[in-house]
Amino acid sequence: MTQPSKPEPSNPVVTHRAQPALLMPQAQLTATARELAARYEGVFSPQTVERYVFESYTALQRTAKITTHLTALAHRFAADRLRALAQADGTLAKDVPEVLFLCVHNAGRSQLAAALLDHHAAGRVHVRSAGSVPGSEINPAVVMVMAEMGVDLAQEFPKPLTDDVVAAADVVVSMGCGDACAIYPGKRYLDWTLDDPDGQDLTAVRRIRDDLDDRVQVLLMELTDPTLRGAAARSASSQPTHR
Questions:
Q1: What does the alpha-carbon distance between residue 79 and residue 56 come to, in Å, rounded to a whole number?
Q2: How far apart are CA 88 and CA 99, in angstroms?
């Protein structure tokens, strides 16, 4: 005798828990793109903004060890890149000189230099940093020696080098990254030779910090003193546009 088949359950068991939409990276990135598109309405199309947001996330994801806060970092990175692009295009005026510090991993020297200049400038200069091959995190020794000066690097992160931040800079300071940086006419390019803090003990990293501290304070004087700034600008205009 044929056994009757069992009826299908009216409420099948769900084998996975659906995540809230806002916890999904794509939803967060789309929300970021909408926010930034509204901020730059009339300057960039929504499509351009969305592309910058998703490109920024992908670029950071390549080297990130921990992705918990990656969408928030992508928001900051994309916002800064869009600001740089608007400055380079002339649609956003610069209130202060723009300085870009470069090294290979954006985990040591360029982070030190950027933090020191930002600390001393107190708003008189806007500072960015980037790396030709960005690392996954800032060197802990760099964080420690800057904390000794009362400068907190907890919110900073390695960022890849992009053409928009180079184009927006008035001064580009390279530290060991060779010819990775695009060359734009009319900018001042500096090449600072100093040790890499990677693998060094705290005493050595403090020496590097103090060396950079002296250099950035000279640079700050050149950028904020009208006489010195004019001389630096004339020097930049006389430099070749290729290396």
A1: 9
A2: 13
What are phi and psi for residue 160, nearest 5 degrees? -75, 150
For residues 126 and 121, what is the distance between their CA atoms, to the nearest angstrom?
8
Single-letter residue type at 219: L
Tell me what pLDDT residue 68 has.
Answer: 82
**Please, what is the angle between helix 70-89 and helix 25-39, to 10°?**
30
Q: List the structure tokens of 243.
A: 């290396």
- The domains found in the chain, sorted by start residue, are 24-93 (1.10.8.1060), 95-243 (3.40.50.2300)
Give the list of residues 6+ apart from residue 72 with CB closer than 8 angstroms, or none. Answer: none
Place of tokens 């970092």: 73
Written as six digits, the tokens of 44 are 């960039």
Q: Is 160 helix (H, G, I), strand (E, B) or coil?
A: strand
d(CA 123, CA 2): 85
pTM of the model: 0.83
pLDDT tens digits, 84-137: 999 999 999 999 999 999 999 999 999 999 999 999 999 999 999 999 999 999
Comparing C-alpha atoms, which of 67, 129, 77 is closest to residue 104? 129
